[in-house]
Design brief:
Structural class: alpha+beta
Number of domains: 2
Strand content: over 45%
CATH class of the largest domain: Alpha Beta
Radius of gyration: 25 Å
Shape: elongated
CATH architecture of the largest domain: 2-Layer Sandwich
CATH topology of the largest domain: Alpha-Beta Plaits
Strand order of the largest sheet: 3-4-2-6-5
Number of strands: 11
Distance between the termini: 9 Å
Largest sheet: 5 strands, antiparallel
């Protein structure tokens, strides 16, 4: 038998993006922090509704309410209560990513409320391809072909030939890696520039063949 491995990378231009937004509020009491955060999150939802996104494009990733502490000479000193609502926005048109970011940030990235301070932050942008399954299968096919050619080369070097394939193992250890995603801060009225780069879809297989 001969055991070889094969690798392949398929590169695709992303056609979908996910923008993560954090609405964070600080106040002296947990009730005030929660109230102002709910008001701010509602305002964000209204802005996104005006952006003409798909009905299922916005979802809540998490909500946290906790007290902030500062470490002093005598121990921890309690500070403000912090409410944080994390929202994910799916953008199916890559050209609109900068527009969506500006929709959230402009109109009050940081605002002082009667009860405390609230800030909207874009905490991340990630890119994907919508038909990922087809790209994964293409990468897998190329990886198997690479492993097969290695096995045939090894068999030829030994004066033998490949008889049949006994085993193929698909090692899914890193499917999609976005390369060089870049988000730059907006200036004046210019739209935030976005450079999504390319998506690398990787496949790695192990191939076992019999020889004769």
């Amino acid at each position: 038998m001969i055991v070889t491995s094969g690798d392949a990378i398929v590169r695709r231009t992303p056609d979908r993006a996910f923008v993560t937004i954090a609405v964070e509020s600080r106040a002296k009491s947990p009730r005030d922090a929660q109230k102002q955060n709910a008001d701010a999150a509602t305002l964000v939802q209204q802005r996104l509704a005006q952006a003409r996104l798909e009905s299922d494009a916005v979802r809540t990733l998490g909500y946290h309410l906790e007290q902030d502490f500062e470490v002093g000479p005598t121990g921890r000193i309690p500070r403000d209560f912090v409410a944080r609502n994390t929202i994910e926005v799916r953008v199916d048109d890559i050209s609109r990513v900068g527009e969506i970011i500006d929709t959230i940030v402009r109109g009050g990235a940081t605002s002082t409320w009667p009860l405390g301070i609230t800030a909207n932050q874009v905490t991340g942008v990630r890119f994907e391809v919508q038909n990922r399954a087809a790209a994964e299968q293409e990468a897998l096919r190329l990886a198997v072909a690479d492993a097969r050619s290695r096995a045939e080369a090894a068999a030829t070097g030994a004066g033998l030939v490949v008889d049949r394939v006994l085993r193929i193992e698909d090692r899914r250890d890193g499917i999609i890696v976005p390369t060089r995603p870049l988000v730059m801060a907006s200036r004046a009225e210019a739209m935030t520039p976005i450079e999504p780069g390319l998506i690398e879809i990787q496949a790695h297989v192990s191939l076992t063949v019999s020889i004769k």
